[in-house]
Amino acid sequence: MLQWSTSGESHGRALTAIVEGLPANLHVDTQEIDNYLALRQGGYGRGARQKIETDKVQILAGVRDQKTLGSPVCLLVENKDYANWEAYMSPYGADVSARRLTRVRPGHADLSGILKYDQTDARNILERASARETAVRVAAGTLARMFLRELGVEVYGYVRAVAGVADEKEYTAEQLQNVKQSPLFMPDEVLCKRAMDAIDAIKEDKDTAGGIVEVRVRGLKSGFGSCMSYGGKLDGHLAGAVMGIQAIKGVEFGLGFAAAMRRGSRVHDEIYLENGKYVRKTNNAGGIEGGMSNGEEIVLRAAMKPIPTLMRGLDTVDFVTGEACRAATERSDVCAICACEVVVESTVCFALAQKVLERLGGDNMREVKERYELLP
Q1: Whole-Å CA distances, 307 to 95, 221, 376
Q2: Which helix (H) or strand (E) holds 59?
Q3: What is the C-alpha to C-alpha distance for residues 163 and 149, in angstroms, rounded to an integer?
Q4: In the sheet that 57-61 helps form, which strands lie side by side, from edge to edge?
Q5: Is this prediction's pTM over 0.70?
Q6: Between the CA atoms of 33, 36, 40 and 43, what dihedral angle is there, to the nearest 10 degrees?
Q7: How far apart are CA 116 and CA 96, in angstroms?
Q8: Residue 123: how many CB atoms within 10 A of its CB?
Q9: What is the end-to-end Cα distance of the chain in Å, rounded?
Q10: E strand or H helix at 293, and its extent?
Q11: pLDDT tens digits along 255-292
Q12: Judging by beta carbons within 10 Å of its beta carbon (0-12, 13-18, 19+), is residue 55 exposed, middle or buried?
């Protein structure tokens, strides 16, 4: 069974991931992992932390001569900023009073985490709840991306809306081929410039912005997922994985919520038989019907809320004194929608690889590929 787990704090020594269940003999390209880590750090509206970190992956176990061994893979992404925080974050003894946070931030995990884990310092919560953790998820997700590519499955995406600027046009895979070269991963240059101007205005107001990303999967054969058990549904599995990403507040497939506003005749994708193959001329279902892939392109969108750390703060309470105050400010981004898009892509890669291996099994890549080829 393919699974992953991560550890590490935002200003701790490093982030790590353990990936179990990858078949043996999967080729691992560390440069590709580093490329996706760099994409996660980029994008218009990012903050000063990205000038400190230059994320690179280190593989500590599970890979030899660029191929997986079938054993757990251990990945590490160093936090270079730890050098500035060691006195406050060291596990061997630290000055925990120096960076104590008691003015809890609305929209963050601060207050709920303090109450749940019986803490007196929100830093013990925010360090793990921080989206910095997603760096190592991108590294692990890129391993899954490499696995899917061996089967002819590609995962890609773009930013559909940000800072109140939405792109309602539909694009082909070819039109999105170079979208990561855009400052906001937006294919429309005019809308991209308008969104950048909106982010500048939001930054001037010491506020933050969210947006919507769209991720697509093409090349996946039908039948992954299940209609026989609720827990086996592919869309449920993907949605659950994406909702586990920091700041994600909604997930939809295909038409999504818009399907509720249409008649059935304008929602359901009619089926035809052409040259011995079943085809659909529309894809309103987003490639998933009855909890299973139907062979069409999977289309998933995720909504990211604005970052909860505002440089001007929001009204809150100091949980130690009980006094009304303005929320604490940490070094933060104005907008991290490009990072979000890369993280969602990576998460979809991993969740999809889980479903693929759940159906196919196989201890090595030769077995997996042979079994996939036998599917209709």
Answers
A1: 28, 37, 44
A2: strand 57-61
A3: 33
A4: 3-7, 14-20, 73-78, 57-61
A5: yes
A6: 150
A7: 20
A8: 21
A9: 24
A10: strand 292-293
A11: 999 999 999 999 999 999 999 999 999 999 999 999 99
A12: buried
